[in-house]
Structure formats: C-alpha cells, structure tokens
Design brief:
This protein is an all-alpha fold and 152 residues long. The chain has one domain. It is 72% helix and 0% strand. The protein is built from 7 helices and no strands. Helix 2 runs antiparallel to helix 4. It is elongated and about 50 Å long. It starts with a helix and ends in a 6-residue tail after the last helix. The N terminus is likely disordered.
C-alpha cells in the first residue's frame, strides 16, 4: 500500500517533469514569441519603410531578440535570416565600410579586390533563395500564428 502523501508527491513530480520536458510551465512558447513580435513590430516597420540600405542592420537586435524566443518550428528559419546578416555586417565593419553608402557598382577606390569579393559573397548569401524563403516563412508564421505581420 502506498501512503497518501507519497501519491501526491509522485503526481507533483510527474507534473514537474512534464513541465521541464516541454521547456517550462510558464506559458505557451508561441504566446511568448507573439508578444515579442508585437513588441518589435514598430521598430521593424521603421526599418522596412526606410530607403537607407544600411537600415537592415538596425533590425539585427530585434531579429536577435525574436530568434532567442522563437519556437522550435521556426528556429532554423531565424538562423537562416540572422546569421547571413551578421556575417555581412561583420565584413563591412572589418572593412570600415558604411553599409548606407556602399554601392557594389562603385565601391570605394581604396577597397582591395579580396575584400570586395568577401563583401559581395556575404551580400549574395543575404540575398540567397534560402534566406529569402526563410524570411517569407517567418512572415507567414507571424501572420498565421500571431495574427500579425512582423512589420506593418
């Protein structure tokens, strides 16, 4: 015969184990993500509306925040968007190039060929089909699950 107190402790232990297995009992990860989408929506809208080519890098902190709370089913999509952007930002920073003024057709005269190729390769990755499709998937997820776009 199992003592009555042991049954309650066992039930509590099973419930706790269940919470830990699914990432916590503090709430639905989708809800937390959707809250973050709403919190960052104004900033992302400002970036989307900007004519400044460098404005995209202003969204990186917002993208990083969203990636950090993204549900597992879209985590890879966030990685496919954020990692190429960080790589391009890094190569531009290392080269001392302002992304707002850089033009591939007329690069700075003192830019060496190897650095130019590195910038162009990073930019191609940002514009790749994989990155574009991942961003489209994130936008669609935001509409379908959160009922709101990433930016307005």
């Amino acid at each position: 015969m199992i003592p009555a107190g042991a049954t309650r402790r066992l039930a509590a232990g099973v419930a706790l184990a269940g919470c830990l297995a699914v990432g916590g009992c503090s709430g639905d990860p989708q809800d937390a993500y959707c809250d973050e989408v709403e919190e960052h929506q104004v900033a992302l809208s400002d970036v989307a509306a900007s004519d400044d080519a460098g404005a995209l890098f202003d969204a990186l902190d917002d993208y990083d925040d969203l990636r950090a709370v993204a549900p597992r089913d879209i985590a890879d999509d966030w990685a496919d968007v954020v990692e190429p952007l960080h790589a391009l930002e890094d190569v531009l920073d290392e080269s001392g190039i302002d992304p707002s003024t850089y033009a591939a057709a007329q690069p700075p005269v003192d830019l060496d060929g190897a650095t130019r190729e590195e910038i162009e390769a990073a930019a191609r990755t940002v514009g790749s089909e994989q990155t574009v499709q991942a961003m489209a998937a994130l936008e669609q997820h935001s509409l379908d699950v959160c009922g709101t776009p990433l930016s307005r």
